[in-house]
Design a protein that fits this description.
Endonuclease, Chain A, alpha+beta, globular, four-stranded mixed β-sheet, about 130 residues
Length: about 130
């Protein structure tokens, strides 16, 4: 697990390039307010939009998740804890007034960037900032 990148993964880089092409500026790997050991992949602080790009294996994608056969019980607990942590993080940020967007690593990052751009523009124009 130590060899797994926690930031700057290929899907994250593709998403960030797509956002940059749309003229959006953002913060990368920012700590989540009130949860110092957790970090957001992309953050739009003024619009209060946070984005996560989740890996299919680590976050149990319903389409692509696989279960390791070796030490299965340990992996089951580990991966279920990851999903529970994601839900807790989403609930925490939502309660603080943030918009939380999550995308799977296999999704089209150009499409994800379009959805993010729409959410950021929407929150800026409605004054939910």
């Amino acid at each position: 697990m130590a060899r797994q990148r926690s930031r700057d993964t290929q899907p994250e880089l593709l998403l960030r390039r797509a956002l940059h092409r749309r003229g959006l500026r953002y913060r990368v790997d920012l700590p989540i307010p009130g949860m110092p050991r957790r970090r957001a992949d992309v953050t739009f602080s003024r619009a209060r939009v946070v984005v996560f790009v989740d890996g299919c294996f680590w976050h149990r994608c319903p389409l692509h998740a696989t279960a390791p056969t070796t030490n299965g019980a340990w992996w089951e607990r580990k991966l279920n804890a990851n999903v529970a942590r994601d839900r807790e993080t989403d609930a925490w940020l939502t309660a603080l007034g943030w918009s939380v967007l999550r995308f799977w690593e296999h999704e089209d990052m150009e499409h994800a960037a379009a959805l993010i751009a729409h959410e950021v523009a929407s929150r800026r124009s409605t004054g939910t900032v």
